[in-house]
Every structure is written in structure tokens, then in C-alpha cells.
Design brief:
Length: 164
């Protein structure tokens, strides 16, 4: 069931600060959010490759990941989401970006919130999205696709024909 979060948004209109309250609904992530998450994860990996000190810290945290060269490794996504506090300390912009993607709330709106409110948003994202279950499902679908492609390639070799 979606979680509703009320956020106060401060804007400057003609030199005067105006505060409005806006309601946001946190739901299961959409395909678009997932795609954005993959791009953000790739960017984080590139940053890690360039920062050896930070990479060493993250490597210790994510020591269970077996395929470090796979830029879209589902395990890394799972660990990134579950290690939000590490990102918040080491890579605050990326942590905000990930939370923005997963919550559907603009990063600038999040940056203007009190820390406890941002943590409420984070908690709602975690409650609404069973990240481990999502990653397991994506892996399963990708494995089925790979098996189908391998079978089709095998049949092409055996029969010498291509299928539609």
C-alpha cells in the first residue's frame, strides 16, 4: 500500500520566502525509475573506479559481490540501496540522487528538507520496495532471456535455419 509523505517546500517569490506543503506518494518503483537507478549505479561505479580510497571503503562493505566488472550488477544495486548511510557520508550527492529516483521526489526538494524528514522518505521507499525481491526477479527474468537466446542459437547451429 503506497505511503504518503508531506513535505514543506520553501520557495523565494519576489524576495519573499513562501512555504507550501505538498503531498508525495511513495510506491513500488516503476520501470522508468528502475532504468534511472541503473544509470545512477553505473555513475557511482565510475566514481568508485576513480577514487581509490573510497573504492577501498566500499569494497570492504560490498565484499560479497562476486562480479566487480559487471557495471549493472544487481547485487551492487541491492547493496547500494541497503547501504544508503554509507553513501550519505561518502557520496552525499549520489545518495540524494538515488533517494530521489526511488521516491520520485525531485532531488532539490529533498535537499531542502530537514534530515528527519528525508529519513522518513527513505524509510517509506524501503517499506514500499522490497529491493532484494525486485533484484531477484530481474535476475530471474534475465536468466530466462539468456536461456531462450542460447536455445535459439543452439537450434540455429543444429538445423542451420534461423527462426522468426
Amino acid at each position: 500500500m503506497p505511503t504518503n509523505i508531506s513535505l514543506k517546500i520553501k520557495e523565494n517569490h519576489g524576495g519573499e520566502e513562501v512555504v507550501t506543503t505538498r503531498q508525495f506518494t511513495i510506491e513500488d518503483i516503476s520501470l522508468d525509475q528502475f532504468n534511472q537507478l541503473m544509470v545512477a549505479t553505473k555513475d557511482i561505479i565510475h566514481q568508485l573506479k576513480d577514487d581509490h580510497a573510497l573504492k577501498a571503503v566500499i569494497d570492504n562493505i560490498f565484499s560479497g559481490i562476486e562480479d566487480e566488472n559487471n557495471e549493472l550488477a544487481m547485487d551492487l544495486v541491492n547493496h547500494l540501496v541497503n547501504s544508503f548511510e554509507t553513501l550519505a557520508v561518502s557520496m552525499p550527492e549520489q545518495a540524494t540522487r538515488l533517494l530521489s529516483i526511488l521516491s520520485g521526489i525531485d532531488a532539490n526538494v529533498l535537499k531542502g528538507q530537514k534530515l528527519m524528514t528525508v529519513l522518513d522518505v527513505y524509510d517509506a521507499v524501503i517499506e514500499e520496495n522490497d529491493v532484494e525481491r525486485l533484484m531477484t526477479r530481474v535476475k530471474k527474468s534475465l536468466a530466462l532471456t539468456a536461456a531462450k537466446i542460447n536455445f535459439q542459437n543452439f537450434m540455429k547451429k543444429v538445423t542451420g535455419k534461423t527462426s522468426a
